[in-house]
Amino acid sequence: MTAMTADSRKNTSGGRPRFYRIATVIGILLCVALIPLLAVNITLIAKSFIHPEEVPDFMGYKPFIVLSGSMEPAVMTGDLVITQEVDPASLQAGDVIAYRYGDSSIITHRIREVTQKDGLRAFITKGDANNVDDNVMPTEDLVEGRLRWTVPGLGNAAMFLQTPGGLLLAAGSPVLLFILIDTLRRRRADKTEQKKSSLLEEELARVKQQLASAEPPAGEGEGGENIS
């Protein structure tokens, strides 16, 4: 009986295909990225309903979507800016701050000068792209935070994630991805199993053929002496 060749064993051996490993890594990375974003987004939405008079935050950080070009080129329209709550006494000229203006507006501009107003620290601010100072002088109690990071273009995506469709997409994408990966894995496993079966059948047929060729022809064998 002939043993299976090394190539046959290699072809019939198990193991995850390379594409499955790559797809799994991509799925994990997407989950790592989407799940925290979803948690932050839900927290911000919940806080906005619980305290509608306050700007919602996540552990002291507050994201704002830039809707105008007053801070270009440092901050572009559609960017997402993330500010951090700080001690107003630490603010100085050159810092970019987000402050409340009116009932629902947030302005993100650069401090040009620190002064006093009604016994509080106040700030003369101006957008980098503007020719004149802002027509209001925010006091320290109106400051929401100091700019920490700017994420180009993410503001538009963040607005979409706050919609029901965006939340559904963020929550469902990892699940759909894993379903797709599992479907592809199963199809690949079926093909591998079919290939293994085919190779085994070929090997069995080869062994049968070798056994058949090794048998003596019919009619041959030890003959006896004729007695007359």
Question: What oligomeric state do the depicted chains represent?
Answer: single chain
Calculate the terminal CA-CA distance, rounded to whole Å.
45 Å
CATH class of the largest domain: Mainly Beta
Order of helices and strands: HHEEEEEEHH
CATH architecture of the largest domain: Ribbon
The CATH superfamily of the largest domain turns out to be: Umud Fragment, subunit A
How much helical structure, as a percent, in the residues? 40-55%
Describe the strand arrangement of the main beta sheet, using strand numbers: 1-2-6-3-4-5
Query: Roughly how many Å is the radius of gyration?
Result: 36 Å
| SSE-based structural type | alpha+beta
Largest sheet: 6 strands, antiparallel
- Poorly predicted regions are 1-15
Q: What is the number of E strands?
A: 6
Structure overview:
There is one protein chain. The protein has 228 residues and is an alpha+beta fold. The protein folds into 2 domains: 16-54 and 163-205; 55-160, Umud Fragment, subunit A, CATH 2.10.109.10. It contains 4 helices and 6 strands, in the order H-H-E-E-E-E-E-E-H-H. The protein has helices at 6-12, 18-50, 154-161, 164-214; strands at residues 61-65, 80-84, 96-101, 105-117, 120-126, 143-151. Strands 1-2-6-3-4-5 form a 6-stranded antiparallel β-sheet. Strand 3 (96-101) and strand 4 (105-117) form a beta hairpin. Helix 2 packs antiparallel against helix 4. The longest helix is centred in the C-terminal third of the chain and has 51 residues, at 164-214. The two termini are 45 Å apart. The model is unreliable at 1-15 (pLDDT under 50).
